[in-house]
Amino acid sequence: MPEPAECFDLITMGRIGVDLYPLQTGVPLPQVESFGKFLGGSAANVAVAAARLGRTTAVITRTGNDPFGAYLHQALKEFGVDDRFVTPVDAYPTPVTFCEIFPPDDFPLYFYRRPKAPDLEIHTDELDFFAVRSARVFWITGTGLSEEPSRSATLAALKARDKGGTTVFDLDWRPMFWSEDPSGSRGGPEAARPYYAEALRHATVAVGNLDECEVATGVREPMACAEALLDAGVELAVVKQGPKGVLAVHRDGTTAEVPPLPVEVVNGLGAGDAFGGSLCHGLLSAWPLEKTMRYANAAGALVASRLACSSAMPTEPEVAGLLARG
Predict the structure, then answer these.
(1) Are the CB atoms for 319 and 293 separated by under 8 Å?
(2) How far apart are the C-alpha atoms of 74 and 77, rounded to whole Å?
(3) Most Cβ neighbours (<10 Å): which of 36, 77, 103, 105?
(4) For 101-148, how does the pLDDT look when each residue is reduced to its tens digit (9 = 90+)?
(5) Dihedrals phi, psi of 38, to nearest 5 degrees
(6) Residue 317, preceding bond cis, omega within 30 degrees?
(7) Record: fold of 8-178+186-325
């Protein structure tokens, strides 16, 4: 029996798709001969990451009405993520994403989400607002704001929460996902910023890297980003600084700046989603801010040391083991 909606620790809303990752490292895509197939998409991966840590999770999203869509339902269930809010769209195929793997820091992504991704076809009148309001943590992404009707549905879900419980805004800036404006150019940060500002007014936590924080706030220095996010309305700002680690600042004045854990990087993709799922786990556990950041960093490091994203999400003993090794 699936968990009743009121019992979900975490509901995420947004992107899902099929990741096709090369099984050869350091080989350009034209020369790759074999691929692994994995559940992908930031919202789905965050839900998986939290589920691997023992949390009850669900995702609100849409797939194509095709075999890849069926695969995603199967994968979500296998990972322990409730798929009751995942519905098909007849008009569009399930997205696929290819990557190239050049460790330690070059992982180009190639998104196949045109003419439109089904996860951008989430409609306001199809949302289960009771489930959205009752989730202990609700997670949305910047990609969900990039096109209608997903944009209106995402903002409606945030307003329905009314800052009840913990509401996380993953800034998730992907410029290629934003629609073209009348002039024919893609919408840049200036086009996205008003929608980011509206989402921040309804969120309690914001998390993003420096590029994403700059899109949301117009500033780039880490502490200035954190302060601008707090000024925009959240209670906790989490700024990921790459090799410098993560900075977290709470409205109550608590600050934590945690360095990354050194690992041999295999595939850096998915580390941020592991961080996100573990961040939710720490918030649900009411841990001190520094403990939560260290735990999330360790989870991200473990996924960076593995090939896949969703299937690489660590368990509690794995995270604890890495932390113990320092």
Answers:
(1) no
(2) 5
(3) 103
(4) 999 889 999 999 999 999 999 999 999 999 999 999 999 999 999 999
(5) -140, 150
(6) no
(7) UDP-N-acetylmuramoyl-L-alanine:D-glutamate ligase (3.40.1190)
Question: What's the half-sphere exposure (Cβ side, CA atoms, 13 Å) at 14?
Answer: 32
What local confidence, expressed as pLDDT, does residue 4 receive?
45
pLDDT, one tens digit per residue, over 266-306 is 998 899 999 999 999 999 999 999 999 999 999 999 999 99
Structure tokens at 3: 């968990």
Residue type, 322: L
Question: In the prediction, which pLDDT does 308 show?
Answer: 85
Interatomic CA distance for residues 260 and 207, integer angstroms: 16
Domain map (residue ranges) of the chain? 8-178+186-325
Tell me what percent of the residues of the chain surpass a pLDDT of 70: 95
**3-state SS record for 89-146:** ECCCCCCEEEECCECCCECCEEEECCCCCHHHCCCHHHCCHHHHHHCCEEEEEHHHHC
SS (H, E, C) 156-207: HHHHHHCCCCEEEEECCCCHHHCCECCCCCECCHHHHHHHHHHHHHHCCEEE
